[in-house]
Design brief:
Length: 93
């Protein structure tokens, strides 16, 4: 194996580092594009889920408003929840 001069060694190290840096930049760019796609998909999924939930709540509310027995049961359930919340807050004070 032949010995390299200090200049040749520095040049070889610089070439290797340039290749490593180029590969790192390529990997970073690929990771950024994957993250961007994931963000877009997540935002779309979140919006669709929000829209579905909104429609579901509207449907349940319409059904509740149409049936007096359901409406009474819902109001009783809310009253119980409110009392439980009130007592829990009172206990924390």
């Amino acid at each position: 194996m032949r010995q390299l001069t200090p200049e040749q060694r520095a040049d070889a190290i610089a070439r290797i580092m340039a290749v490593v840096e180029a590969k790192r930049l390529e990997d970073d760019a690929a990771a950024d594009s994957v993250a961007t796609v994931a963000k877009v998909k997540t935002a779309a999924r979140r919006a669709a889920c929000k829209e579905y939930t909104k429609r579901w709540h509207a449907k349940c509310k319409a059904k509740r408003e149409a049936d007096p027995a359901l409406r009474a049961a819902y109001l009783e359930q809310q009253r119980i929840k409110d009392r439980a919340y009130y007592h829990a807050r009172k206990a924390r004070q």
